[in-house]
Design brief:
39% helix, 318 residues, Rossmann fold, 15% strand, 12 strands, 14 helices, alpha/beta, binds 2-keto-D-gluconic acid, seven-stranded parallel β-sheet, five-stranded parallel β-sheet, 2 domains, binds NADP nicotinamide-adenine-dinucleotide phosphate
């Protein structure tokens, strides 16, 4: 391997990341029109640093690729199984964003339950003076909370809800060693809780897990909070359930076709919409960027990364 391997950069990175990557690699930004570029130069690259996954056609044009370091814990936009079968290590950025994303989920829950945005509009528009007090909202105290996906972030959300006196329930593929009630059926859990937090990975394994049946089970007073991926919720079914009053309200950070959000959702009072900002603070994004660079620096030293995705754990041990 050359002393300074060539690294392909996908997406825009911070100056701090650029400085660190340039210390160990010859960094080249993937051009927007990449087909001819990859046909000519694809074989040069041993490494990728990506802020936006790796399209399959890009992966296919990099025969000498050895490592992908991805910004973000979710990697549904990288075919990690194919990468692992080709001996390519994929690394992501788990743990460093748990609190930030959980804070965002709790913020959405508070905003939805306490009707933060309509109440703020009431104050700002002068309706308080002309129409009187804003109607009463609902408390978040002592609620039954369901977590779909009790992983790193899900457990952090669960702990935070305990501070509000919540009774925590969860559904994931396997039972965890935690003092919360486990449901092996998602609709059954939805029926038992007041609020459902969705925090699984995206991808085929979780596509539209939250379907019309689950939304109906959550019910007309129920609240859905999604900070995972838009693909986990059947968005058309969600719009219908909200329109028909079969679901109470929703707080959404993620959507099926980002950055597009259905107009029907935009016009609803009982939803709070965010532009995928779960981890988006200066501090947490810096920690994520640092981990992207740590993974590549570690790979330069001994061919291993610090935080491989599950599909690449064995490869990372060889
Ligand atoms: P994690 O530790 O891997 O946890 C994922 C959880 O989902 C696990 O409890 C897993 O448990 C469960 N799960 C996986 N497939 C499932 C299925 N088919 N049915 C039910 N449960 C399933 O991941 P994490 O670090 O908490 O991150 C979770 C996801 O959050 C990321 O993948 C990403 O998509 C999303 N995220 C969003 C933002 C944002 O900005 N909104 C930021 C960070 C992360 P079992 O294996 O037992 O099923
Ligand atoms: C980021 C995320 O918004 O970590 C994830 O899985 O969804 C977020 O932290 C995203 O990775 C930025 O590209």
């Amino acid at each position: 391997m050359p002393e300074r391997p060539a690294l392909l950069q996908l997406g825009k990175i911070s100056e701090r990341m650029a400085k660190r990557l340039a210390a160990g690699f010859d960094v080249v930004q993937l051009p927007a029109d990449h087909e001819a570029f990859l046909a000519e130069r694809g074989s040069e690259f041993a490494a990728i640093a990506t802020m936006r996954g790796v399209p399959d056609d890009v992966l296919a044009e990099l025969p000498n690729l050895k490592v992908i370091s991805s910004f973000g814990v979710g990697y549904d936009n990288i075919d990690a199984t194919t990468a692992a079968s080709r001996g390519i290590l994929v690394a992501h950025t788990p743990e460093v964003l748990n609190d930030e994303v959980a804070d965002t989920a709790i913020m959405l829950w508070l905003a939805v339950s306490k009707e933060l945005l309509p109440a703020e509009r009431w104050a700002r528009s002068g309706a308080w003076e002309t129409k009187g007090n804003y109607p009463l909202a609902r408390t978040i105290r002592g609620r039954k909370v369901g977590i779909l996906g009790l992983g790193r972030i899900g457990q952090t959300i669960a702990k935070m809800t305990e501070m509000f006196g919540a009774e925590v329930h969860y559904h994931s593929r396997s039972r965890k060693g935690v003092p919360y009630q486990y449901f092996d059926n998602l609709a059954d859990m939805a029926r038992a809780v007041d609020v459902l937090f969705v925090i699984t990975p995206g991808g085929e394994g979780t596509r539209r897990l939250v379907n019309a049946e689950v939304l109906d089970a959550l019910g007309s007073e129920g609240i859905l909070i999604n900070v995972s991926r838009g693909s986990v919720v059947d968005e058309a079914a969600l719009v219908e359930a909200l329109k028909e009053g079969r679901l109470g309200a929703a707080g959404l950070d993620v959507f099926e076709d980002e950055p597009r959000i259905p107009d029907a959702l935009k016009s609803m009072e009982k939803v709070v919409l965010l532009p995928h900002i779960g981890s988006a603070t200066v501090e947490t994004r810096q920690a994520m960027g640092d981990l992207v660079c740590d993974n590549l620096d570690a790979w330069l030293v001994d061919g291993k990364v610090v935080t491989p995705v599950p599909e690449c754990v064995l490869l990372n041990e060889q």
